[in-house]
Amino acid sequence: MNNRLKVLRAERNWSQAELAGRLDVSRQAINAIETGKHDPSLVLAFKLAKIFDSTIENIFLENHDE
C-alpha cells in the first residue's frame, strides 16, 4: 500500500524516531510503513490520521500495481 507518511512527516520536520515516540511504536515500525514493507493496524492508521489532522484515505493510497 502506498502512503504519504514520509511527506507528511517531513512537512513537520519530524524524524522517524520522533513520530514513533508520538505514536508509541518503534522507529523501525515507522520505517517499515513508510517503505511499504508493512501495513499499519487499523488502530495505528487512525492514530496517524489524528496526529496529521487528516483522513486515513489521504495518508494511505491503494496500490493498483499489485
Helix and strand pattern: EHHHHHE
Largest pleated sheet: 2 strands, antiparallel
- End-to-end C-alpha gap: 9 Å
CATH superfamily: lambda repressor-like DNA-binding domains
Instruction: Classify the beta-strand content into a percent band.
Output: 5-15%
Strand order of the largest sheet: 1-2
- Low-pLDDT residue intervals, each spanning 5 or more residues: none
Number of structural domains: 1
The count of strands amounts to 2
Choose one word for the global shape.
globular
Entry summary:
With 66 residues, the chain is mainly alpha-helical. The protein is built from five helices and two strands.
Describe it.
There is one protein chain. The chain is mainly alpha-helical. The protein has one domain (2-60): lambda repressor-like DNA-binding domains (434 Repressor (Amino-terminal Domain)). The chain is 56% helix and 6% strand. It has helices at 5-11, 16-23, 27-34, 42-51, 56-59, and strands at residues 2-3, 60-61. The protein has a two-stranded antiparallel ribbon. The model has no long low-confidence stretch (mean pLDDT 92).
